[in-house]
Design goal:
Helix content: 10-25%
Radius of gyration: 14 Å
Structural class: mainly beta
Largest sheet: 6 strands, antiparallel
Low-confidence stretches: 1-28
Strand order of the largest sheet: 2-8-7-4-5-6
Number of helices: 1
Shape: globular
Number of domains: 1
Strand content: over 45%
């Protein structure tokens, strides 16, 4: 497994170290998840989960399709919003429509 660090803000799911994220190549095994990456061009933050009882999500438009990060910590939504406002690049790793990691960098 290869890992790298970024001078930007690194955000990942549980298991990623502070400032380091593992880059995962698509697995060749049948049925294994294939992680894809892209640059987000828009975002949408659910401030209140809808429908009631569901999980609030951070949505990012990547490669023409909306991807979601369920129940993000408040700081993550703020960093993504600040990134878009400042012209930073928001890179996203996703499996299907679920975000598995992201980086905000200048």
């Amino acid at each position: 497994m290869t890992s790298f660090t970024s001078p930007g803000i690194l955000i990942g799911k549980a298991g990623a170290g502070a400032g380091t994220m593992a880059a995962t190549a698509p697995a060749a095994a049948v049925g294994a998840p294939a992680v894809t990456s892209g640059v987000a061009t828009q975002y949408w933050v659910e401030l209140v989960a809808y429908p009631p009882g569901s999980t609030a999500s951070l949505w990012l438009l990547v490669s023409g399709a909306w991807k979601r990060y369920d129940n993000p910590p408040a700081y993550m939504s703020e960093l993504v919003q600040q990134g878009f406002a400042s012209g930073a690049t928001v890179r996203v790793w996703y499996d299907g429509e679920v975000i598995v990691g992201l980086v905000v960098s200048k």
